[in-house]
Specification:
Keywords: ANK repeat, Repeat, Ubl conjugation pathway. This is Ankyrin repeat and SOCS box containing 11. InterPro entries: Ankyrin-SOCS_box_domain (IPR051573), Ankyrin_rpt (IPR002110), Ankyrin_rpt-contain_sf (IPR036770). The chain is mainly α. Among the domains are: about 65-160, Serine Threonine Protein Phosphatase 5, Tetratricopeptide repeat (Alpha Horseshoe); about 195-294, Serine Threonine Protein Phosphatase 5, Tetratricopeptide repeat (Alpha Horseshoe), CATH 1.25.40.20. Helices cover about 55% and strands about 0% of the residues. It contains 17 helices and no strands. α10 runs parallel beside α12 (about 200-210). The longest helix has 25 residues, at about 15-40.
């Protein structure tokens, strides 16, 4: 193993050394199996050897993602001191990615490690790098709820709103109940009614996950109270979740009680019978009816 060490101290546990060793085994295993398949084998020993190599090949193949993670990913994932990544960065490309195209900056933001993220950005890390799942570092920062990471990424040029095919940072912030992250994104001109094909609008997500603080703030900032996910409105989501406080907030801001979704159901149809939500909706419908008479 010492021959594979790239740490300059000939350690026996060099991560890069282990990676190279695994790569060699993978390559040899594939060749051994293919060689046996094509040429056949002269003895049972050759057959067993080929099978063993191929078995090791399969085992190591299952570790492919971690086998291709650079030591710098491990450093920032662990959230070590700012000096540790500085040493790890020496002579390495900060934009190296895993097989899933996850960068060290993705890992740092997901862990909320601001110091590590700053070092990476200062050394040229791509602030808008995208994984194969459409995840950006800003999305990960919103996932972790790190306000400091969100602010720093935006300062370094992160795009707060990307294409519809990419995971939306504001939807993730709302889903997790990270109101401050949500407010920062809205202050950077993110569309408050941005409709995600999978999740709907931020307000709809807030109602679905019963994030009352986010619901209140979105309504205060002017979110469309009737815009949700296709024909489903935020009120539909709140009634479905039996969230009385959210239902009251939405109706106070003028939610349309008569809107029907794709199943031709209004919010009242989705409320649990004899529940407080049903009572609130019936009361609001009665008030609307009385108001229409005068």
């Amino acid at each position: 193993m010492s021959g594979f060490c790239l740490c300059r101290d000939r350690c026996k546990n060099c991560y890069l050394g282990k990676y190279l060793y695994k790569a060699a085994v993978l390559s040899s295993g594939a060749k051994a199996f293919c060689g046996w398949s094509i040429r056949g084998t002269d003895s049972w020993v050759g057959f067993v050897s080929s099978i063993l190599w191929f078995w090791r090949y399969l085992l190591l193949l299952s570790e492919t993602r971690w086998a291709l993670i650079h030591p710098i990913h491990r450093v920032v994932w662990a959230g070590l001191s700012p000096h540790a990544p500085c040493r790890a960065l020496q002579g390495f490309n900060v934009n190296l990615v895993t097989t899933d195209r996850v960068s060290a900056l993705h890992e740092a933001c997901l862990g909320g490690h601001v110091a590590c993220a700053k070092v990476l950005l200062e050394n040229g890390a791509q602030v808008n790098a995208v994984t194969i799942d459409g995840i950006t570092p800003l999305f990960n920062a919103c996932c972790s709820g790190s306000v400091a990471c969100v602010n720093m990424l935006l300062e370094f040029g992160a795009k707060p709103q990307l294409g519809n095919h990419l995971a939306s940072p504001i939807h993730e912030a709302v889903k997790r109940g990270h109101r401050e992250c949500m407010e920062i994104l809205l202050a950077h001109e993110v569309d408050i009614d941005q409709e995600d094909l999978q999740h709907g609008t931020p307000l709809y997500v807030a109602c679905t996950y019963q994030r009352t603080d986010c619901v209140k703030k979105l309504l205060e900032l002017g979110a469309n109270v009737n815009m949700g996910k296709r024909l489903d409105t935020p009120l539909h989501a709140a009634a479905r979740k039996s969230s009385m406080e959210v239902v009251i907030l939405l109706t106070d801001y003028g939610a349309n009680l008569k809107c029907r979704n794709a199943e031709l159901k209004c919010a009242l149809d989705l409320a649990v019978p004899n529940s407080k939500v049903e009572q609130v909706l019936l009361l609001r419908e009665g008030n609307d009816f009385l108001s229409s008479l005068f």
